[in-house]
Specification:
Blueprint: H1 2-23, H2 49-52, H3 68-83, H4 88-102, H5 133-136, H6 139-151, H7 161-169, H8 181-191
Helix pairs in contact: 3-4, 3-6, 4-7, 4-8
Length: 194
């Protein structure tokens, strides 16, 4: 697509040059209004779907509508993934995990509904060494902690998403992460370059 765009732009530039050469100089009047140009913004290409879901999705997929807080948390996960020097696939695994654990809501202590002392986007537990309550309810910190665990999983890039996530999270419901892979990939495609 970029080469077609470049060829088109070169063609337009060539016509403009030829028009100027053959038509001669254009007189500019002092009272003429200045011509204002609007810069062309070229949007970066979306990540390759093959990188986002290299093994295809497993099983039925779930999807939820996101509110502003959930979108902000999605963007925070992507930013932390980039800061950690990891790729789009790591962001997909992270977002799918957070969708399963908290629906991308930064959860505090839920009282009787709480799984022990699990909190934050990834439902990490202070008592299991993930960090303090303040740390694990910080989206950047909790994502970085998750990614640190993911990096320690040999071959996580070649695993199905649910297995990679489960190796880090050690959930009682290891197969539940898979249902969020498509939405996580869609979110990464949408926000990776924003």
């Amino acid at each position: 697509m970029n080469s077609i765009f470049r060829k088109s732009m070169l063609g337009v530039a060539g016509l403009a040059f030829a028009g100027g050469v053959f038509a001669g100089p254009v007189a500019v009047h002092a009272d003429a209004a200045p011509v204002r140009t609007t810069p062309v913004v070229v949007q970066a290409e979306k990540p390759d779907a093959g990188k986002l879901i290299p093994h295809g999705v497993q099983g039925a997929q779930s999807r939820i509508d996101l509110n502003g807080e959930q979108v902000a948390n999605t963007k925070a996960i992507i930013a932390a993934t980039k800061k950690a020097g990891m790729d789009e696939r790591a962001a997909v695994v992270s977002i799918a995990t957070a969708l399963q654990e908290s629906k991308l809501e930064n959860l505090g202590h839920l009282g009787d509904r709480n799984d022990h002392d699990s909190q934050g986007l990834f439902q990490q537990r202070p008592s299991s060494g993930w960090g303090t309550v303040e740390q694990i309810t910080d989206p950047e910190y909790s994502t970085t902690a998750f990614l640190k665990g993911l990096k320690q999983v040999d071959g996580w890039q070649d695993m199905p998403l649910t297995r990679a996530a489960q190796t880090v999270q050690v959930s009682a419901f290891p197969d539940h992460y898979a249902q969020w892979e498509q939405q996580a990939a869609d979110l990464v495609a949408k926000y990776w370059n924003s």
